[in-house]
Amino acid sequence: xxxxxRLFLLILLSVSFxxxxxxRNEGQxxxxxxxxxWIKGKNHSAIEQFKVVLKKYPSDQFAEExxxxxxxxxxxxxxxxxxxxxxxxxxKKLNKGGAFGYDAQKYIAEIMEFTFxxxxxxxxxxxxxxxxxxxxxxxxxxxxxxxxxxxxxxNYNQALAEFEVLFERYPKSPRxxxxxxxxxxxxxxxxxxxxxxxxxxxxxxxxxxxxxxxEINFILAxxxxxxxxxxxxxxxxxxxxxxxxxxxxxxxxMESLEKRIKKK
Length: 264
What we know:
Distance between the termini: 114 Å
Largest sheet: none
Number of helices: 13
């Protein structure tokens, strides 16, 4: 009797696993079919397929991917970013720690910044990326974006504060070099040329071969011009000939200085 019962259990487990495997295969096939439709440019067909996935697997990992892909379709293919955000938020609600949670939050932050230009909300969403996800290698990028948004808002003092957070928390990030260059730009914008000189000395000690040196030298030359050191400023601008990324602006600066020097 025990042997019959044991055999019955084995058969029952075997059938259960077979049904489960069939279910998983069906879910995978539905996801694959929907993705293929999207790749072919059949957006609305893909949407319908993903909705079938949601109906059959409302709380499964297949639902996570379906919601995420729907967000991508509406954002990238249908230019309906508002609806896309709704789907990305649903991904987070379903399983924030799942395979698509982090990327969904990143899309939300980027849409808020670049598509809607809702800078205040974008800052919140980038901060959520830092606070809610264990992705330390990527946190520096999000901190950099927060500082950059404050530049867009022309809140330069807060931008400086956010860059300081970047330096303090992520000192080995590849973002450090560009962040320090941005600080030099901000100091010049705030008419703090004396601070520009001091900061550049520190920058040059670490990044003597920086790709931003020509742009920084343009700023240093501009500071010399503002101080009235016209000939020194002219020579510094001249040294940037064929190097500076905005040659028309450089030419205008040099021509203006030539006239001022002659008058002097």
